[in-house]
Design goal:
Layout: E1 25-29, E2 34-45, H1 51-62, E3 67-69, E4 78-85, H2 92-95, E5 100-108, E6 110-112, E7 121-124, H3 133-141, E8 145-149, E9 158-159, E10 162-163, H4 164-169, E11 179-188, E12 193-195, E13 200-209, H5 215-226, E14 230-240, E15 243-244, E16 248-249, H6 251-260, E17 280-282, H7 285-291, E18 297-298, E19 311-315, E20 318-325, E21 332-338, H8 340-343
Parallel strand pairs: 2-16, 4-14, 17-19
Antiparallel strand pairs: 1-2, 2-4, 3-4, 5-13, 5-14, 6-7, 8-11, 9-10, 11-13, 12-13, 14-15, 18-21, 19-20, 20-21
């Protein structure tokens, strides 16, 4: 299971929103009721909705076509869902690389086909003896670092052009690809509770993880290590894309805000908020004239760059572009996302 314990190329930055002096770009077209803005807003997704449902609801509330989310949540999972708006959608792929934090509950003694409490029971083993909490903690710590996971059959991973859940619903089996995941921390956060009526045991946990981690599978694999079938009985995402629960608003709150004072822009974070985990560079007047047109530059003119690094370039506190090293030209930096050129169109 274990690969190594190195720190991955993901970042865990929870935004200090009070430190931002940038204003999100937002204006109303009152005749149409539409709002044009660029940035991101934290939505607290409630259970029973898909992430796409949240995006569709936000599109209807804000009358914005260019909108997307930065990290899927399963329908039964509640929590932080970063919604990117306007030119903020250019940041989705980068926000998804940011770390995530989940709080949940693991139940030992029962396994389900979906690896959560929604699925049919496929295995039972009575928990008749109390488990050592030290042994549980030791087993959980063994998952920290890089691990290999096999995604659950009820997941959106594609195999031979079909999603795994399509195979599962058709009662078909298929070989599932192994995936590498990174676990920054996996900790028990409550005493172990025993449930004599079902002969199960459960405890709450918190996990810090990277992109593509299946927390359901983490619970199942932990149970196997402890010698029991297991499933994830509850899950909430408390941080993602640099946002925490405190930064989020429910769809009802956003809808009411729009209907009352219409100042949704007060809750929209600027483009700069989405790149705070990248090294930043303030452009001189001379460099700005080149960067705004997407000119490739010697890396040393941007204080040097490392392979795989993304650097956020600013001019007068406005995000202009994201640059990375050219894959074929030595020590040359090239733009991977441009913001300034489009901003001038307004």
């Amino acid at each position: 299971m274990k690969k190594d314990l190195g720190f991955p190329q993901v970042f865990f930055l929870w935004l200090d929103l009070d430190s931002f002096h940038f204003q999100s770009m937002c204006y109303n077209v009152k005749s149409e009721g539409a709002m044009f803005m660029d940035g991101m807003i934290g939505v607290w997704k409630e259970p029973g909705m898909t992430s796409f449902d949240c995006v569709a609801a936000m599109r209807k509330i804000l009358h914005i076509r260019k909108i997307g989310h930065a990290g899927t949540l399963d329908p039964q999972v509640s929590g932080v869902l970063p919604i990117c708006i306007g030119r903020g959608t250019k940041l989705v792929e980068f926000l998804q690389e940011n770390g995530k934090v989940y709080q949940g509950e693991i139940t030992l003694g029962i396994a389900t086909e979906t690896e959560d409490r929604e699925g049919e029971v496929i295995a039972r083993k009575k928990v008749v003896e109390k488990l050592s909490e030290e042994a549980i903690d030791f087993a959980m710590a063994d998952f920290e670092g890089y691990i290999t996971q096999i995604p659950p059959m009820y997941s959106a991973v594609k195999v031979n052009g079909k999603r795994l859940y399509q195979y599962a619903r058709a009662h078909e089996t298929v070989e599932r690809p192994q995936r590498r995941a990174w676990i920054g921390a996996f900790k028990r956060t409550s005493p172990v509770e025993y449930h004599p009526d079902q002969a199960t045991a459960s405890w709450k946990f918190e996990v810090i993880c990277g992109k593509g981690t299946y927390v359901r599978t983490l619970a199942v694999d932990l149970g196997k290590q402890l010698g029991y079938p297991a499933h994830m009985s509850q899950l909430t995402r408390t941080a993602a894309g640099g946002l925490t629960a405190e930064d989020c608003h429910t769809l009802d709150e956003i809808r009411k805000k729009k209907e009352t004072d219409g100042r949704i822009d007060e809750w929209v974070l600027p483009l700069a908020a989405g790149v705070q985990h990248f090294p930043q560079f303030e452009l001189s007047d001379e460099l700005f004239e080149k960067v705004k047109h997407g000119v490739q530059l010697p890396a040393e003119s941007l204080d040097g760059m490392n392979p795989g690094e993304t650097k956020a370039l600013f001019f007068e506190e406005k995000l202009v572009a994201l640059y990375q090293l050219h894959p074929e030209k030595e020590n040359i930096a090239r733009p991977v996302k441009m913001f300034w050129v489009e901003l001038q169109e307004q």
